[in-house]
Amino acid sequence: MIVKKLHECGLRSEHAYAAAFASIGLSVASWYASLGMEKKGEERADRWGIFVGEWAPTFFGLGLALANYER
């Protein structure tokens, strides 16, 4: 139901896969930025990186669901 609605709105599996790879890059960038800008230490930077890094599996899963629907 949700996958069908997303597909009807124009979202394709390639978009979800691209978002997954972008979130991996954003995870590294947010970790590095937090490490350099905040003086809270490496633990805080790790939390930022992990927070953003958790988006990638969601986007990959959505991409798989959309790919199956597109077949």
Short description:
The chain is built from 4 helices and no strands. With 71 residues, the protein is mainly α.
Description:
The protein has helices at 2-8, 13-37, 42-53, 55-70. It is an all-alpha fold and 71 residues long. Helix 1 (2-8) packs across helix 4, helix 2 runs antiparallel to helix 3 (42-53) and helix 2 (13-37) runs antiparallel to helix 4 (55-70). The two termini are 16 Å apart.
What features would you highlight for this structure?
71 residues; mainly alpha
Radius of gyration over C-alpha positions, nearest whole angstrom: 15 Å
User: How far apart are the termini?
Assistant: 16 Å
The helix/strand series, from N terminus to C terminus, equals HHHH
Largest pleated sheet: none
What's the tally of helices?
4
Strand elements, count? 0
Mean pLDDT: 87
Which regions have little confidence, pLDDT < 50, spanning 5+ residues? none
Strand content: under 5%
Instruction: Give the fraction of residues assigned to helices.
Output: over 70%
Shape: rod-shaped
Protein structure class: mainly alpha
